Amino acid sequence: MILDNNGFLRLLHRKANTTLFGTVCRQVHFLIFLLVACPNYGQVLPKNAVTTADYHLWGTLYADKISEKGNWISFTMRYDESPDTLFVKRSDGKKQFAFAKSNSGTFNGEHAFVSCATDGRLSILDLDQGKISIIEEVETYSFSGDGTYLIAVSRKANQRMLQVRNRAGLIVYSIAGVDQFRMNRAKDALVCTLESEGVYQVMQLTFGVTIGKSVLAESRNGKFSQLIWNADGQAVAFLRENRDAATGINRPVVCYFSPKHSTLFQLGPDTIPKGFYVESESASGLTVSPDGKRVFFTIRKEVSLAEKFGGVQVWNGTDAVVYSERQSVADVECNTRTAVWWPERDRFMIITDQSKPFGFLNASQDFAISYSTNDLAPQYKLDRNANYFVTDLETGQRNLLLENQSTELSASSLSPGGTYFAYFKDNNWWVYNFLNRAHSNVTRRHGLQLADCEDKIWPGNYRVAGWGVDDASILLYDAFDIWQIDLKVNTAVRLTRGRETGISYRIVPPVSSGFYASYFTGHIDEVVDVNNTILLSATRTNESGYFIYETNRSLKPIVFGDFLTTKILKASKAAVYVFESQRYSSPPKLIISKGKEGRNTTIYQSNLHHYGYAWGKSEKIYYQNSKNELLTGILYYPAVYNPERKYPMVVHIYESQSYLYHCYINPSLHNMSGFNPSNLTAQGYFVLLPDIEYELGNPGLSALDCVLAATKAVINTGLIDSTKIGLIGHSFGGYETNFILGQTDLFACAISGASVFDLAGWYLSIGWNVGRPEMWRFESQQWRMGKSLFEDRNGYARNSPLTFVDRIKTPVLIWTGEEDRQIHYYQSIAFYLAMQRLKKKAILFVYPGDGHALVKKDNQEHFAQRIEDWFGYYLKGESPKKWIREGV
Fold this sequence. Notes:
Helix 8 crosses helix 9. The chain has 15 helices and 57 strands. The longest helix is centred in the last third of the chain and has 20 residues, at about 855-875. By secondary structure, it is mainly β. The protein starts with 7 loop residues before the first helix and ends with a helix. About 15% of the residues lie in helices and about 35% in strands.
């Protein structure tokens, strides 16, 4: 799939390789080989391959929760065609409970578990007695912090009712007419909005030995909304509806209440600058600073966008950001402002303006960083650079903080104590101290290798790992290890020893409390206490696992080996861990690790029926491209394999895929890009996933070089029929497919999805998902040209499928989504029209209601069947279906 603006797939791809593989490569550089099949592989007891009719049996395992002492775990099996099922199981395996139509729940200590089904039925499981009680029509629920009370909002007689139950399940308090409620972080109090006989209220409940009740605000003129607590639960903010009697337009009032002082403050419309009003529709709502002294919110202009983005469009050649992209963010840039209010000081200030419309607060929310994407010259990169300005909210003074700094998320971090802003510049990490306004380079003197330069076209860094207690230090990653930099004396300590073993260690982030969200916060990393145990993930090529970093700087393994291990959960009050483990030929299972020796025991095996079917195996292959670089690929064997015969093969391409080696893949009709290796191996195909090494300026030729080398390496083993090989790719892989077909006749058929056909045409186009020109994808991202079209016209032509379409002899099935805004579906139509005009075999599917990937189930099912038909005809000699024969 093509990268979106978050660059997620780029990061996933980068982290897939480690230098251990390089060590292996050096040891076997003289040998190009394919691992030979085990002689006994075809001699097992006969089993039937999976058929389409069996696909519905498969589900996907999701670890959900672990109780605080680790005595119980919950997990979900989710299905394409059947209701999801939530399981609760005792960690010794002796008891298990199931909840249909549920996919998540909450433990209340070791004694109760609650889950809400999709139909609104709330199930309360008594873990001691095994009894389940039901509450109907529940919309939301929560436990009090000490677990004494269950709070649930349900609909009764056409009104919403908040009910508080004790541990025995008895209702001890109820409130009718509740609209919404919000717990504080400690969960020892909540606030809720309600209405009764035309009177609107904000009420607070406190939970202790008894339940306390108090009314914080009351109104007959409009309801209350958008409740939010500050971090320590000592202040709460909300909005009060305030409709103009003449116009009926709502101009909300911002309210603030401090339970500590029992005082209600209100910021009326008269304080807001003329022509603006408080935004009440924003999903992000209000924010209260951690110290409870400041309230942040959005104000909106009275006028519409027609002022600036109505009528004739003006695309100015000097614009840093083109008209279409500015239009996509125009509401923020032109109409909204972020404001702050000090209730107890009766002070109000606007933080952002049209010149600096974007920004974020530091963690203590007493400084703001703001910027504009229009200040600098046009840039053709994934994340633009900008000039950063810092505003001291106490004084209102705004000063230049940084010039020409990357806005990429991984290039900055805010310390959780609010003292520092860290940023990556010139291959070093710097920190800015908000209090003394000083910049310090904290890594240059230590010579750390912090730049992630595996792909020269995407320079980056290994990110911030976290911050020390009280902002005393910053923790940084290099390719393998975690470093701690003391910010007072600027000393560096390497906490792990991954470089020596080729293992890459990363800190497992804690599960978020999710107690509130802010619309104006930056990238705040977690506190990491190196004087306490830390949970680490570990990877090395296709090995993975978890370790415990102990206070004496030693590492204790929980699990590590040649398999894929993910989704670890830790009990909050015990050294008990639950994680998932899988291999391609073994479905995911839940493993629990506990005890002083850390014994690992399987507590649940998903998809047990898998073992009743014939299933393929995966092997690594090694091959060399034309530059003698040793590369890796994955070869999947047919489910029912006979070493005495040769088989057809499907080659799937998309950059590097060897990190998928241990991924178990459910057979399914519901695949967003259509490709599913388990479907194909069950249908009697070998499936090859080759890695591709790219040369700057030659993305198409690099793909051709590596894909042909990998395919020929498999052909040389004698396992496959060299006349029955298919090629398939989606998005960037679709582009690679289109290009390769114009260079070779090796493939008997191909499938290309949501692809680029004309490089120059796409370079000079707009990505309409955000209105941004697509030039950045070529000059500094996935297309890896490294230059503009006008600097390297020959290079763009040399790597464009359009240039060589007349050479294509391979039948091609093309597909795209009619709503694709990532790669416009006109590119697929252009490919089809070229093939039609040249009288070559091509069929195009344009799926209505879908975009860059197939999301609608009926479209997924349609395409899954067409893939089977297409490969069946061209690679297995089956009779052509009518749609292939006649195009209908």
